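Review the following:
>
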Amino acid sequence: MGDKSSSRIELADLPADFAPEGVPYAVLVPPAYNENDGGAFPLCLLLHGGGGNRENLAALKPLFDRWWTAGIMPPMVIASASTGAMSYYLDHPDGSARWESLIAEEFLARLRDNYNAGQDRASTFIAGISMGGYGALKIAFARPDRFAAVAAIQPLLEPGFRDAEIGARNRLHHGVGGPRELLGENRDPLLFEANNPASRARANALLIRESGLAIFSRSRRRGFSQCARWHRISASRAVGPRYRARVPPDSRRRSRRANVRAKNPRCLRVARLGDS
């Protein structure tokens, strides 16, 4: 394991009924983890993006080490599971895989059992990038009683509550891969809506507000800036001022022009909470 006073990566597998060989995961423990006598560390579930796996967390270790050394980020345990290259953290209707449930239930329980971290909601966070940002938002919005905060970096979002509201421009990523019942020309509209973070925020708005869930989202990719802007508006109207999103100002201007060209009025006129 090396120097116990330094941060380290630990690798293991999580048993799952739909994965005979288990689900690989990595845990990054902060410096002086074994010397801590001040109670449990915070716990952050970090969801990888499309094409990623637990090795992404190992690659980020030098960055977290710099942040810990500089005092930018408090010591915490960070964990990431390999959920499949393009899983979209989906619980498949046929039961062939339960990626969302695995992360929110079995994985979280395993980490709390095996590490001195995240022993209550106040010290448990979830974050992700791209596909992982999408997954983090939808998991947190469905379970605000389990997480104190959610952060989504460049989340892979589609600007609409329903499938019929999504224009062709915002379906380009469907060709990259992923569950066909969730992505693609013949996807299940009800499944899309049920997994859509914006729809979950609107449906679960009262619980999200009451829980005090802190929400942060940021996008820098031009192609998805209009989606980030739409989601920022729709989710913030649902859950209130604790939703924070950062999109470059020039991207906001480009997004408006692109929306007009695409004739997608729902990107410009977001339905208020409770609208059908």
Remarks:
- Confidence is low (pLDDT under 50) at residues 247-276.
- The beta strands are 8-16, 19-29, 43-47, 77-81, 124-129, 149-153, 214-218, 243-246.
- The radius of gyration is 19 Å.
- The first strand starts at residue 8 and ends at 16.
